[in-house]
Design goal:
It contains 1 helix and 8 strands, in the order αββββββββ. With 129 residues, the chain is mostly beta strands. A hairpin with an 8-residue loop joins β4 and β5.
């Protein structure tokens, strides 16, 4: 009986990892729809691969914008605020970059999309572990 229970637990652990999904969030940024995915769910301390898909009003992919990502953790007692910025590079139909969360906790993330002299932004929060 114990072997059966152990085998069942191992099975569910393995299949749970196999179907785990990336962290994903969809936000409006001006006239754009921004879909952000991070390859780990939940995001972790250290490097996390981030992909940004930008769609216009009609749902078409926007591939001629400049996309940057700012992420920060506010100041806490005995610790100054942490602020980072990275530019995302176009790869296919998505903009890709890495975020390096230096510690666990709640991080504020802002994706900025600049095109045609206008800049729109989408904000969200992630909890790195």
């Amino acid at each position: 009986m114990k072997k059966l229970m152990l085998a069942t637990m191992v099975f569910f652990c393995i299949t749970g990892l196999a179907i785990a999904k990336d962290f994903a969030v969809t936000k409006k940024a001006g006239d754009y729809t921004v879909v952000v995915t991070i390859d780990k769910n939940p995001p972790t301390t250290g490097d996390n691969n981030l992909a940004v898909a930008v769609k216009d009003k009609s749902g078409a992919d926007v591939t001629d914008a400049k996309v940057s990502v700012e992420y920060s953790m506010p100041a806490m007692p005995g610790m100054p605020p942490m602020n980072y910025k990275t530019n995302a590079e176009l790869a296919g139909k998505q903009y890709k970059t890495k975020l390096n969360f230096s510690m666990s906790g709640s991080w504020n993330v802002t994706v900025k999309v600049a095109q045609g002299g206008k800049t729109a932004q989408a904000k969200f929060t992630v909890d790195a572990r």
